[in-house]
Amino acid sequence: MSLALNKILLAGSNSTTNTAGAYWQNANITVNTAGANANIVIPAGTYYANTPANCTVLGNLGGGSNVTIVAANSATLLVSDGVNMYANTTTNGTLVLVTVNGGQAASGTFTS
Question: What is the reported pTM?
Fold first, then answer.
């Protein structure tokens, strides 16, 4: 996952997620709960999030208790610190996340 949303797009690159030159990278979170509430920490990053019918995103805003940040059946831009954002579901489900594909690490800089 990239730490910023900028990316160089390659002409003729494959638009399929998680491939070389692709803009999007899937970062889905599967929550297996066997029918009980479970909070799964969302890794640090910036995501477009799509919550299914049985899934919400909770956040701890420093008050000691979690509050609903994203309701079920919603979509939003989500910024997670990797500690205080959780995927929550009452049944087994998947929080659908996409982020900008981080690609390969740069080995140097370009000069003109």
Answer: 0.69
